[in-house]
Specification:
155 residues, alpha/beta, 5 helices, 43% helix, cytoplasm, EC 2.1.1.177, rRNA (pseudouridine-N3-)-methyltransferase activity, S-adenosyl-L-methionine, Alpha/beta_knot_MTases
């Protein structure tokens, strides 16, 4: 099973890249995490943010295969505990599903991305900075895997 983090935004600070990479390299080959950064849509002072969201939606949707399970990270999604995440990851692995996890831009995800999503997951009711979401997501995926396999990290 492959996990693919599709994230709008490029040129992340070094701490983001280091944090994500730390957890990415800890995951086993059979549950690898690929990180795909996509350019944000054009945003000027007088521009309509809806146009940028549509452009970002096009970019995200173009990177999703029909066979992939899609999880949209969305503040209006359902919160999952780490044990619930771990159980979902086990189910995805048993089904042989590759999974795309969508992180939108500063104005959120395009409605077409939310419609394509099989699941909508809220990491927190708080508004989190997008760079932090990447690190948090990578860590939680690793933590979910450790819980699945009985690794002591989760203690």
């Amino acid at each position: 099973m492959k996990l693919k983090m599709l994230a709008v935004g490029t040129r992340m600070p070094g701490w983001v890249t280091q944090g994500v990479e730390e957890y990415r390299k800890r995951l086993p080959r059979e549950m690898s995490l690929e990180v795909v950064e996509l350019s944000p849509g054009p945003r000027q002072k007088s521009a309509d943010p809806a146009k940028a969201i549509r452009v970002e939606g096009d970019r995200l949707l173009s990177r999703i295969k029909d066979s992939e399970l899609v999880v949209a990270l969305d503040v209006e999604g359902k919160p999952w505990s780490t044990p619930v995440l771990s159980e979902r990851m086990r189910d995805w692995q048993m089904a042989g599903s590759d999974v795309s996890l969508l992180i939108g831009g500063p104005d959120g995800l395009d409605q077409r991305c939310l419609a394509r999503a099989d699941l909508r997951w809220s990491l927190s009711p708080l508004t989190l900075p997008h760079p932090l979401v990447r690190v948090l997501l990578a860590e939680q995926l690793y933590r979910g895997w450790t819980l699945m396999t009985g690794h002591p990290y989760h203690r």
